Amino acid sequence: MVTLSTEIDRKEKTSKMIVKGLYVHPIKSLRPIPLFDTVITPIGPLHDREFMLIRPAVGEGMQDENMLIARYSQLCLFSQEFYPKGSSSEDAEGVLVTYAPPKKPQKRVLRVPFRPDTEGLARRKVLMHKTECLAYDMGDTPYSEFFTHCLGIDVRLLYISPGNLRTSLGNVPPPQKKVSGGLLSLLGFSSDEEEKHNITFADCAPLLITTEWSLRDVSRRFHHVAETGGGPHRGLNMSKFRPNIVLGPPHGSPRGSPRGSPRGNTTSDDVIPAWDEDFWAELAIRSQHPPYIDGKSECHKILLTQNCARCRAINVEYDSGEFGNVNLPGGEEPFKYIMQDRRVDPGAKWSPIFGRYGWLEGKESVKVSIGDKVEVVRRNEERTRFYWPGIST
Fold this sequence. Notes:
Elements: H1 4-14, E1 17-24, E2 33-35, E3 37-41, E4 44-45, E5 51-55, E6 65-66, E7 78-83, E8 94-99, E9 108-113, E10 123-128, E11 131-137, H2 140-151, E12 156-159, E13 166-167, H3 182-186, E14 198-199, E15 207-211, H4 212-222, H5 225-228, E16 245-248, E17 280-286, E18 299-309, E19 316-317, E20 322-323, H6 334-338, E21 353-360, E22 366-369, E23 373-379
Parallel strand pairs: 15-16
Antiparallel strand pairs: 1-2, 1-16, 1-23, 3-4, 3-22, 5-6, 5-12, 7-8, 8-9, 10-11, 11-12, 13-14, 15-21, 17-18, 17-23, 18-21, 19-20
């Protein structure tokens, strides 16, 4: 039973969080771009997962294959950054992709514009998690040729435009509202059309939220030397979990952090239990950077709707571009260790849970920065159950 003192303690602790990390993934499954600040739109961080690689179908009646890091581990050997160098998500012209495989000194680079000229580009039907959209094929030169040469297989680069987005399904979107329309609304009639929640090439929702406390728990599980300070373990990199927003304590890393985590110590007042986010329903993010409104910082709400089920993509070793193996020096298999007791969602009963899917409340874009204060303003009494037609269990 949750007592009043327990609830007060929870509220005090979860009001001492800040934004510790921001990531955007312009091309899905490639390495993310870490940011100091970014614009969050109703369909996710600006430029997040606007592009995706596919393997074109080779036979009649076959479908194109979406290239995901869970199947093509070498995708992690491609890094991304905005260009011009040093630009923010708001003023960047595009993404600079660099391919740097191990033991090969020569790098290959490619520029991909954020506002490509789509006139004359062919369209391809994309099927992802039972949702469809029409995406633009960016063409042979230089895009397909670059990735095909690097990967050694036929690859196409697709772009999803604002007018051809996917639709999030099941109970992953926030509760839908009826949208009244035009003349019918003026005459006092309501429309049967429901508000749709659109997404890019992100799996299920525009935002994925994770915490440093839960990452620390995973690190402790799969390698005991995280505590003793010996051996090859360097600490898990949060980017493997591909979040958009990472939350943590305001001073450094969670207490007793494993080697390789950012420096800093915290007091017991900063400690939030690992996996507490399973029960979070709504966050308030308060900007700590100008501009302010009437002398007060802006406050943005993020609705957390469902858990994020994980696959073996988190086992990929970014240094080698291969799946980790605990029998090899420095090998990591975090998936194995969170399978032990993190299969907590009956809607995804064969998969471990790490992180929560989120949606920006409202239709206006907002700016979020490292250091912004975060508070849990609404909790669920029980964990939510994931439902997505054709995928959930």
